[in-house]
Amino acid sequence: MNLVKHTGGCHCGAVRFQVWNSPDLHVFHCNCSICTKKQNHHFVVPKSQFTLLKGSENLTMYTFNTHVAKHSFCKICGVQSFYTPRSNPDGYGIAPHCLDPGTVHSVTIEKFCGEKWEESMQAHRSIRDMSKPVADTQLTKQNNTIDK
Question: Alpha-carbon torsion 25, 31, 32, 37, what sign?
């Protein structure tokens, strides 16, 4: 798998991050209560592929119910550009619409029934693996890509 470095952040620029992921994004559209309210779409990456570049002091967090998901957002502009999803507490959910232009080739959207979260997690065969680091990663800084 070929990975590229995506950069992004919130609306006001106080929070900035980089993430290594495929240029072809697999994005989840969840219909749980909070994702519906904020129209959350996200793709999942391992923590090792995410770097917060600036703005930790500008992040605030909201949790509810099981408190496993950590909904972080900029306390200046209110935008959530990434968060820790309940499905993948060992990774991050990245909002594709918060990425800077130029690195995304395609987006595939998969609906996820968050209204029936437990059933959906049992039925989904690969979502938990999306936050697991892939072995044998070789970083090629010259190309700004990672080949797997």
Answer: positive
> How far apart, in whole angstroms, are the C-alpha atoms of residue 75 and residue 105?
31
Question: For the stretch 80-107, what's the b/e string if a residue is b when 16 or more beta carbons lie within 10 angstroms of its beta carbon?
Answer: bbbbbbbbbeebbbbbbebbeeebbeee
pLDDT in tens, 7-33: 999 999 999 999 999 999 999 888 878
Residue 66: closest CA among 33, 95, 28 = 33
Q: b/e per residue, 22-35, with b = 16+ CB within 10 A?
A: beebbbbebebebb
Q: Where are the beta strands (DSSP E) in the chain?
A: 2-9, 16-21, 24-30, 41-46, 50-54, 59-62, 71-74, 82-83, 91-94, 106-112, 138-140, 145-147
pLDDT tens profile 90-138: 999 999 999 999 999 999 988 765 667 677 767 776 676 776 776 534 3
pTM comes to 0.79
